[in-house]
Design goal:
Blueprint: H1 4-29, H2 34-48, H3 52-88, H4 104-122, H5 125-151
Helix pairs in contact: 1-2, 1-3, 4-5
Length: 152
Protein backbone atom coordinates (compact mmCIF):
# COMPACT_ATOMS: atom_id res chain seq x y z
CA UNK A 1 0.00 0.00 0.00
CA UNK A 2 1.22 3.51 -0.83
CA UNK A 3 2.11 5.83 1.95
CA UNK A 4 1.00 9.46 1.95
CA UNK A 5 4.55 10.63 1.32
CA UNK A 6 4.89 8.37 -1.73
CA UNK A 7 1.55 9.55 -3.05
CA UNK A 8 2.39 13.24 -2.60
CA UNK A 9 5.98 13.18 -3.86
CA UNK A 10 5.56 10.28 -6.28
CA UNK A 11 2.39 11.43 -8.01
CA UNK A 12 0.89 14.76 -6.90
CA UNK A 13 3.96 17.00 -7.11
CA UNK A 14 5.17 15.67 -10.50
CA UNK A 15 1.59 15.77 -11.81
CA UNK A 16 1.26 19.41 -10.78
CA UNK A 17 4.64 20.28 -12.29
CA UNK A 18 3.73 18.62 -15.57
CA UNK A 19 0.29 20.24 -15.53
CA UNK A 20 1.74 23.72 -14.95
CA UNK A 21 4.33 23.28 -17.70
CA UNK A 22 1.72 22.09 -20.20
CA UNK A 23 -0.75 24.80 -19.24
CA UNK A 24 1.96 27.47 -19.54
CA UNK A 25 2.99 26.27 -22.97
CA UNK A 26 -0.60 26.11 -24.21
CA UNK A 27 -1.36 29.57 -22.79
CA UNK A 28 1.78 31.03 -24.35
CA UNK A 29 0.88 29.60 -27.74
CA UNK A 30 -2.56 31.21 -27.49
CA UNK A 31 -4.24 28.71 -29.81
CA UNK A 32 -7.11 27.92 -27.43
CA UNK A 33 -8.91 29.83 -24.70
CA UNK A 34 -8.27 29.30 -20.96
CA UNK A 35 -10.86 26.57 -20.39
CA UNK A 36 -9.63 24.42 -23.26
CA UNK A 37 -6.02 24.90 -22.12
CA UNK A 38 -7.03 23.76 -18.63
CA UNK A 39 -8.85 20.64 -19.86
CA UNK A 40 -6.03 19.69 -22.24
CA UNK A 41 -3.39 20.16 -19.56
CA UNK A 42 -5.26 18.03 -17.03
CA UNK A 43 -6.00 15.32 -19.60
CA UNK A 44 -2.44 15.15 -20.92
CA UNK A 45 -1.01 15.14 -17.39
CA UNK A 46 -3.31 12.28 -16.34
CA UNK A 47 -2.42 10.31 -19.47
CA UNK A 48 1.29 10.89 -18.85
CA UNK A 49 0.89 9.73 -15.24
CA UNK A 50 0.26 6.18 -16.46
CA UNK A 51 3.46 5.90 -18.52
CA UNK A 52 6.92 4.66 -17.59
CA UNK A 53 8.39 8.05 -18.53
CA UNK A 54 6.35 9.61 -15.73
CA UNK A 55 8.03 7.28 -13.20
CA UNK A 56 11.45 8.31 -14.52
CA UNK A 57 10.40 11.98 -14.45
CA UNK A 58 9.17 11.51 -10.87
CA UNK A 59 12.44 9.96 -9.73
CA UNK A 60 14.44 12.72 -11.39
CA UNK A 61 12.27 15.50 -9.94
CA UNK A 62 12.56 14.20 -6.38
CA UNK A 63 16.36 14.08 -6.69
CA UNK A 64 16.79 17.51 -8.20
CA UNK A 65 13.92 19.53 -6.72
CA UNK A 66 15.59 20.39 -3.43
CA UNK A 67 18.79 21.61 -5.04
CA UNK A 68 16.85 23.52 -7.65
CA UNK A 69 14.74 25.25 -5.03
CA UNK A 70 17.79 26.28 -3.00
CA UNK A 71 19.59 27.47 -6.14
CA UNK A 72 16.57 29.44 -7.33
CA UNK A 73 16.20 31.06 -3.91
CA UNK A 74 19.89 31.98 -3.80
CA UNK A 75 19.76 33.45 -7.32
CA UNK A 76 16.62 35.47 -6.58
CA UNK A 77 18.09 36.68 -3.31
CA UNK A 78 21.35 37.82 -4.90
CA UNK A 79 19.60 39.53 -7.81
CA UNK A 80 17.07 41.13 -5.45
CA UNK A 81 19.77 42.48 -3.15
CA UNK A 82 21.73 43.82 -6.13
CA UNK A 83 18.69 45.57 -7.64
CA UNK A 84 17.62 46.96 -4.27
CA UNK A 85 21.08 48.27 -3.43
CA UNK A 86 21.50 49.88 -6.84
CA UNK A 87 18.11 51.60 -6.68
CA UNK A 88 18.52 52.69 -3.05
CA UNK A 89 22.15 53.66 -3.49
CA UNK A 90 21.47 56.55 -5.85
CA UNK A 91 23.09 59.62 -4.42
CA UNK A 92 24.70 57.80 -1.50
CA UNK A 93 28.19 58.88 -2.52
CA UNK A 94 27.39 62.49 -3.32
CA UNK A 95 29.51 64.92 -1.37
CA UNK A 96 27.87 66.69 1.55
CA UNK A 97 26.93 70.25 0.71
CA UNK A 98 27.14 69.73 -3.04
CA UNK A 99 23.69 70.12 -4.51
CA UNK A 100 22.31 70.19 -7.99
CA UNK A 101 20.80 73.38 -9.28
CA UNK A 102 17.11 73.66 -8.35
CA UNK A 103 14.47 72.64 -10.84
CA UNK A 104 11.91 75.05 -12.25
CA UNK A 105 9.31 73.92 -9.70
CA UNK A 106 11.78 74.37 -6.83
CA UNK A 107 12.70 77.85 -8.08
CA UNK A 108 9.03 78.90 -8.07
CA UNK A 109 8.54 77.60 -4.53
CA UNK A 110 11.75 79.27 -3.32
CA UNK A 111 10.63 82.56 -4.87
CA UNK A 112 7.26 82.29 -3.08
CA UNK A 113 9.07 81.48 0.18
CA UNK A 114 11.15 84.66 -0.13
CA UNK A 115 8.00 86.72 -0.67
CA UNK A 116 6.27 85.12 2.31
CA UNK A 117 9.36 85.70 4.51
CA UNK A 118 9.29 89.41 3.66
CA UNK A 119 5.58 89.59 4.49
CA UNK A 120 6.16 87.73 7.77
CA UNK A 121 8.82 90.25 8.78
CA UNK A 122 6.26 93.09 8.46
CA UNK A 123 3.16 91.29 9.73
CA UNK A 124 1.76 91.15 13.28
CA UNK A 125 -0.90 89.07 15.08
CA UNK A 126 -3.32 86.89 13.15
CA UNK A 127 -1.88 87.81 9.76
CA UNK A 128 1.55 86.64 10.91
CA UNK A 129 0.14 83.24 12.04
CA UNK A 130 -1.58 82.78 8.67
CA UNK A 131 1.64 83.63 6.84
CA UNK A 132 3.61 81.19 9.01
CA UNK A 133 1.14 78.42 8.09
CA UNK A 134 1.51 79.35 4.43
CA UNK A 135 5.30 79.13 4.85
CA UNK A 136 5.00 75.62 6.33
CA UNK A 137 2.88 74.55 3.36
CA UNK A 138 5.46 75.94 0.94
CA UNK A 139 8.27 74.14 2.80
CA UNK A 140 6.31 70.88 2.53
CA UNK A 141 5.84 71.46 -1.21
CA UNK A 142 9.57 72.14 -1.56
CA UNK A 143 10.44 68.89 0.26
CA UNK A 144 8.04 67.00 -1.98
CA UNK A 145 9.50 68.59 -5.12
CA UNK A 146 13.04 67.67 -4.01
CA UNK A 147 11.97 64.10 -3.21
CA UNK A 148 10.35 63.79 -6.64
CA UNK A 149 13.55 64.93 -8.30
CA UNK A 150 15.71 62.66 -6.16
CA UNK A 151 13.69 59.46 -6.45
CA UNK A 152 12.24 59.84 -9.89
Amino acid sequence: MLEIEDLVFGFAVPFLILFVILWGILSALGVFDKKINLVLSVALSLIAATTEAFAIFTGYITQVAGYTAVGAFAALFIVGVAVWSISRGKGIYEEVGVTKSPSRGEKKILYKLEKVDKKIARARGTKRRILLEERKELEDKLRLERAKRKYG
